[in-house]
Automatic annotation (TrEMBL):
Residue stretches making up the CBM20 domain: 1-106, 141-247
A Pfam family assignment: CBM_20
Family matches, as SMART domains: CBM_2
Record InterPro entries: Carb-bd-like_fold, CBM20, CBM20_DPE2_1, CBM20_DPE2_2, Ig-like_fold
Species, as recorded: Aegilops tauschii subsp. strangulata (Goatgrass)
Protein name as catalogued: CBM20 domain-containing protein
Superkingdom to which the source organism belongs: Eukaryota
Amino acid sequence: MAKVTLIFKLPYYTEWGQSLIIAGSAPALGSWNVKQGLALSPVHEGNALVWCGQVSVPAVFTCEYSYHVVDDHKNVLRREAGEKKKLVVPEGVKDGDVVEVRDWWQDASEALFLRSAFKNVIFSATDNAKRQLQSPSLSKTLDPEDIVVQFIISCPRLAAGSTVVVTGSNLAVGNWKAQNGLKLNYVGDSIWKAYCVLRKSEFPVKYKYCQVSEAGVSSLEFGPNREVDVDLSSPKPSRHILLSDGSLRV
């Protein structure tokens, strides 16, 4: 059976004596038993404290999971708010590939906007219900210099008829021109996704998400540029990077 290595990375600041564990629906993530989940280790990346862990899973793999802050005895001190995260290993991965999940901690304020009752009252989630579901696909044959980046963003407050694109510092994402940006597909539950194939030499890439109205008017999200980079010094760099970027900053 083909296997891939999943690497999870989550920027999160903890206090002394605290650590992070992933618990999920798959046996590799403890079958929801936190004490048997995947323990993460902290690494300093610039000014950020990033919690990392890896696990081997089948190449065809889907699960739900969430992050938990625990004490030295693996007692849960804090857990993510809201619904469980969903992970789907991308199609086309090969035996031995490394799939990197760059994640985010969902706090209570973000979880509130994702609750269907709140969305129905405030932002008319019925508009999302009318959107056509599409599965992002990757048709390109990869060579050793290619890295597949999957952009994943939650847009619970998207205006009716709007779509989402990624634009940034690379031709594949439009060179900061929204009209040439990478169009994302709506996959349900307010989530938009798209694949992009980049050469190793093209990293790092700065980018932002942009909403495009039904009339074609584009507006970039607020805040600083996002960035994706790869560690080419690693003996086996990630072949697939899943950018779980949280919510659109509006």
